[in-house]
Amino acid sequence: MNIVIVGCGDVGTRCARILIDAGHQVLAVKRNPLTLPQWLTPIAADVLQPESLDFLRADQPDPVSIDVVIYVLAASGFTEQSYRDAYVTGLQNTLNALGTRPLKRFLFVSSTGVYHQNNSEWVDENSPTHPTRFNGQLVLEGERAVRELPHGTCVRFSGIYGPDRLRLINRVAAGQSASEGPPAYTNRIHIEDCAASLAHLTTLALDDKPLESVYLASDSLPATSAQVESFIAQTLGLSLEQGEPVPRAKRIAGSKRCSNQRLLDSGYQFKYPDYRAGYKQVIDTMRAAG
């Protein structure tokens, strides 16, 4: 089967490896494909340059065969324009190029930033989404375009962490903590589970299994920032008792607990089902690398 991954960065590349190992053909679309590993088939394209996406069009001479498209483009920065470019304009350019192709599935990587809940309540795919920040609003605008497709599925990732995403570990190692203010629930997913869950949903689509229009992809144990930081400190052999609190403005806003039951019901099994398993792997990898 032929799969196109648009925005093939860290998550996309990891997903591509899983799918290729399963025997599928993967085309990796990136503005600078020279940064891709050699085992990937690259296509140089910029979603903000519609003409560069002509290879997606079915009316081209000798058109590319496509079964599934995975749109996993991330904003280039935390600005309104960057989010609009990635999740609205670039997405719409991609959908326009695909036109009425009879895809098995179009997977759009979204975010739990579309939720507005802030009182530690549980949220799932049926919970209301009324984001107050520009990032959530623009991602939700992209979701609406995808959910209008007969073959569209949105995958809402919570906070991604992994061996190359060490912001929280570095903060704890520096003696900083999130003890200021009331406890706030946070949600996260290891980058390996990001890639594997996308590959899982892709496989279901290729096997003509029914998919929902939205999946919430987060691990199985929401936790407060203090709980996560305490575990990291303990695993590092450090103490946060004398840690300097991080000002609230510098921390992610919100407090909610994300349910991954729909993803579990689809048959997905997490490699790192909670922050303890995931961060232990990250720290063990750091130690092994010296």
Would you give an account of this structure?
- It is a single chain.
- By secondary structure, this protein is an alpha/beta fold.
- The chain has one domain (2-162, 189-221, 257-271): Rossmann fold (3-Layer(aba) Sandwich).
- Helices cover 34% and strands 19% of the residues.
- It has helices spanning 10-21, 80-98, 134-147, 167-173, 191-206, 225-236, 261-265, 275-288, and strands at residues 2-6, 25-30, 41-44, 68-71, 105-111, 121-123, 152-157, 159-161, 176-177, 185-186, 188-190, 214-217, 223-224, 244-245, 256-258.
- The strands form 5 sheets. A 7-stranded parallel β-sheet has the order 3-2-1-4-5-7-12, sandwiched between helices. Strands 6-15 form a two-stranded parallel ribbon.
- α2 runs parallel beside α3 (134-147) and α4 packs across α6 (225-236).
- It is globular and about 65 Å long.
- The protein starts with a strand and ends with a helix.
- The model has no long low-confidence stretch (mean pLDDT 93).
Protein traits:
single chain; seven-stranded parallel beta sheet; alpha/beta; 8 helices; 290 residues; Rossmann fold; two-stranded parallel sheet; 34% helix; 19% strand
